[in-house]
Amino acid sequence: MRSSGIRLVAFDLDGTLVRGETCVEAIARSLGHLQQVREFEGLSPRQLKEVASARERMAHWYAASTPAELCASLSSLELAPGAEAAFRLLRRHGVQTAIVSITWEFAVKWFARRLGADYFVGTRLLHDGRVEHFWPQDKGSWLTALMRQLGVRREEVAAVGDSVGDIELLRAAGHPFLVGSVRPAELDDVPHHPDGNLAEIALSLVGDRASAR
User: Fold this and answer.
1) CA of 175: how far to CAs of 110, 153, 201, in Å?
2) Topology at the third CATH level for domain 8-19+79-206
């Protein structure tokens, strides 16, 4: 069964699909670097040089571990209310899904597999330890490229984010939703569902009033 309108929904990860502790915090906790990472998390997304340096430092910590070992801690993270039900509902209606995040792509991939997302993107940790950065401003262009690849129009796309780091992602979609506890001034025109239940948002998109279990 296919939704008559929405064909693609893109979700941010930290703060949107995952609430509370972030992916990099969970990994850092398992490696004994939680305090340092919390300092990194305080950086503004606009501080590209400082964030790039922090990522390179994290990559050094990760060098002795495999991606599977690093992802082992992700199961401790709290999924947003309705996250799993939202993906099941969208899949049942033939709606494709994507996870678009600036965090490590191996972590994004882990959640894509867990939730059944069709597409994903994040910051890549290459085999030689180099970092292929993915920034907040890249989210919109990535989603636009995916829309073009799939032959999907902007009005057939929804996006869900939680912060100013998702501005480009939300602007690229015809149906944006903000689920952060605080609405940034830059997103005052975006429908705001503070700490929102993702299954309820999915229901509104497919127009299905049946219970999302």
Assistant:
1) 26, 11, 11
2) Rossmann fold (3.40.50)
